[in-house]
Write a structure and sequence with these properties.
Strand content: 15-25%
Largest sheet: 5 strands, mixed
CATH superfamily of the largest domain: Ribonuclease H-like superfamily/Ribonuclease H
Number of strands: 7
């Protein structure tokens, strides 16, 4: 079984800061003019830490998720694919679920309001922390830096990424709610089932 964690991240150039400057005198700090956004939809292979990417500077929608599913089906041809993803509408719409079924990809949706259960969120946090270390004058430099950090996850940066994600993961197909507000009604009155990776 090949286990992948899929989610998108939106990297906005010019909205972050490098730190704080305190003083009586007013100071001007050089920054990028405008707010350009680089959207990255990534699928992290839990075992190898390789990240497959679909990216643009507009929006991530169902079309990009479908492009990702086709890309993954080709990359992991002949292997059973299980993808963990959240409940965003563009990831759970009929077009996406139907294509996944046609491609033989099993989609596992995490409970609402639980982004911490999707391990790729740790990668996005790592990328954003690396971006904050310098000023970007050109949008192309900004995108290339993001791409190079992501491309390094299964190469030179694999040791750090392995520590970031740990050695094992457990999936639950169904969950038992603690109270009426815990999870959607579809999870009620079902037993907990674990799948070890």
């Amino acid at each position: 079984m090949t286990l992948l964690f899929l989610d998108g991240s939106h990297f906005v150039m010019g909205c972050d800061f490098l730190g704080y400057i305190y003083g009586i005198t007013r100071r001007f700090v050089k920054t990028f003019s405008g707010r350009k956004r680089y959207n990255v939809l990534g699928a992290l292979n839990f075992m190898t830490k390789k990240v497959t990417v679909v990216a643009n500077d507009t929006y991530i929608k169902a079309a990009e998720v479908c492009e990702m599913l086709r890309k993954l089906a080709g990359e992991y041809a002949g292997k059973p694919l299980h993808i963990i993803l959240d409940n965003a509408r563009y990831q759970k719409c009929e077009v996406v679920t139907k294509l996944a079924q046609e491609l033989g990809i099993v989609l596992h949706y995490i409970p609402p309001y639980s982004p911490n259960l999707n391990l790729i969120e740790r990668l996005w946090k790592h990328v954003k922390s690396r971006l904050r270390t310098r000023y970007y004058d050109q949008f192309n430099d900004f995108m290339q830096t993001i791409d190079s950090i992501i491309e390094d996850t299964d190469k030179g940066g694999k040791g750090f990424i392995d520590k970031l994600f740990g050695e094992s993961v457990q999936l639950f197909d169904t969950l038992i709610p603690i109270n009426d507000n815990s999870f959607a009604a579809e999870f009620a009155n079902k037993k907990k089932v674990g799948i070890a990776a």
